[in-house]
Amino acid sequence: MRFRMSGEKKKINLSLVVSVVIIIVLLAALLYYATMPPKVEVVPTTIVSTTTVTPEVKPHEIKIGVIGKSLSPWWTIAKAGAEYAGKVLKIHVDFFAPTKEDVPAQLDAFDSYLAKGYDAIAFACSDPKASVVYINKAIEKGVPVITYNSDSPESKRLCFVGISDYEGGRAAGELMIKALQEKGIPVKGSKFGIGQGSATALNAIERARGFMDVIKAAGGIVLEPVIDKEDPEKAFELATTLLTTHPDIVGVFGTYSYNGKALSAAVKQLGLVNKVVVIQFDTLKQNIDPIVEGVSYGTIGQRQFFQAFHAVRLLYNIIVNKMYTNDLNKAIEIVLQSEIIGYPENKWYPIGFDEVTIHNLKDVALLYDKLGMPRDWKYPGEP
Q1: What is the structure's pLDDT at 283?
Q2: Are 191 and 248 in contact (CB under 8 A)?
Q3: Pairing relation of β-strands 63-67 and 249-254?
Q4: What is the CA radius of gyration of the chain?
Q5: Which domains does the chain have, with CATH numbers?
Q6: Nearest alpha-carbon partner for 270 in 255, 249, 285
Q7: Residues 6+ positions from 25 with CB-CB distance below 8 Å
Q8: What is the Cα–Cα distance from 263 to 92, expressed in whole angstroms?
């Protein structure tokens, strides 16, 4: 499948904007999504050239704060995406993430960015409900906030940048069924487990829900997810307990990158390879290695580099348009109507996801290289 790109662009009232020009060629290259791997989410969106302003604006004075969910290899790549946007746009980008899931630490960082006068904030919410008051306070103060990776839909955030986590979970469920069919193991009546990184983060909840819906519809029995609060050591402990307590489990799914690593390690340690199917989320070395080794059947990749990159890029566009219109609401309308079909009713800027197995691993690696997305792994036979 391919990401749909529409040639339709919203017209901008020139009387409200002094100068809107097409951003540099480098960004256009980053926005190229014409070729996608075998399984990519298809969503109603358009990716258009971003807008900037004439040279008298000093973009290096702009400061954007970015908040992640934890310090992990996954978030290292997301951080790189945010910082690369800062480098390309010549603005100041600061990235913060707690060591592991820590909602108060996230909210303290948010307040700190606000108090220090940052121009905008990109926020991956570990607790969407607790984040509402903070996001709304920033919006009321005239500080644009965009969520990415994990949303807070009840807040006044301007939009969300990321995948459909529910559809990603469904894709994982379908991949699980495919793996079991290849092994001749029935889904109906079989037990399945879930390693879930958070009890509050919407992305973890929705991925688990999507997976459950597919498995239950096929007659499978899904056990209550085990929650580790983004603690990799705890994740392995819970995975081991899950598999030993329920020796009749035929498949397990991890909602976060390290969940997949923990489940794969537990399956391998307990001698359950070829007996328990492991489906993961994300495409880090810790997820790809088990696929190459035959411990895990596959994973769902979500391109975190571009989630953070586009969150920063959209905020930048809003800020510079505000400089010319002197009207934040108009700047938001100009930028988001040009980038999101159906805005403001639709406030989702989608990033595709990839279904990855040993069979298409090389294709995915070459695609990531083409798009400029960092990877810390190699496909079999890669020099």
Answers
A1: 97
A2: yes
A3: unpaired
A4: 21
A5: 21-163+304-352 (3.40.50.2300), 165-301+357-371 (3.40.50.2300)
A6: 249
A7: none
A8: 38
Tell the residue number behind the tokens 């409900």, with chain if given.
129
Q: What is the pLDDT of residues 224-254, one digit of tens each?
A: 999 999 999 999 999 999 999 999 999 999 9
How many Å apart are CA 235 and CA 195, to the nearest integer?
7
Q: For residue 31, give both structure tokens.
A: 């926005």
Place of tokens 């020139």: 14
User: Which of 207, 211, 218 shows the shortest CA–CA distance to 185?
Assistant: 218
Residue 57: which pLDDT band, with cuts at 50, 70 and 90?
low
Instruction: Answer whether 230's CB lies under 8 Å from 198's CB.
Output: yes
The Cα 158–Cα 146 span in angstroms is: 5
160 beta partners: 147, 348
- Rounded to an integer, what distance in angstroms lies between the CA atom of residue 312 and that of residue 151? 15
Sequence-ordered list of residues with C-beta below 8 angstroms from that of 185, at least 6 positions apart, any chain: 250, 277
Please list the residues that pair with 253 across neighbouring strands: 194, 279
pTM (two decimals): 0.83
Label residue 58 by pLDDT band (50, 70, 90): low
For 25-53, what is each residue's pLDDT tens digit?
A: 334 334 433 233 333 332 322 233 334 43
Amino acid at residue number 348: W
Q: Determine the Cα–Cα distance for residues 78 and 20; give it in Å rounded to an integer.
A: 29
Per-residue DSSP letter, 60: G
Q: How confident is the model over 195-208, as pLDDT tens digits?
A: 999 999 999 999 99
Q: Which two tokens stand for residue 103?
A: 């909602």
> Rounded distance, CA 84 to CA 63, Å?
14
- DSSP string for 171-212: HHHHHHHHHHHHHT---TT-EEEEEES-SS-HHHHHHHHHHH
Measured CA distances, 98 to 9, 115, 231 (Å): 39, 19, 11
CB neighbour list of residue 245: distance below 8 Å, 6 or more residues apart = none
Q: Is 337 within 8 Å of 8 (Cβ atoms)? A: no
Nearest Cα to 40, choosing from 216, 275, 300? 300
DSSP, residue by residue, 268-315:
HHTT-TTTSEEEEES-SHHHHHHHHHTS--EEEE--HHHHHHHHHHHH
Phi/psi of residue 298, nearest 5 degrees: -175, 180
Beta bridge partners of 120: 64
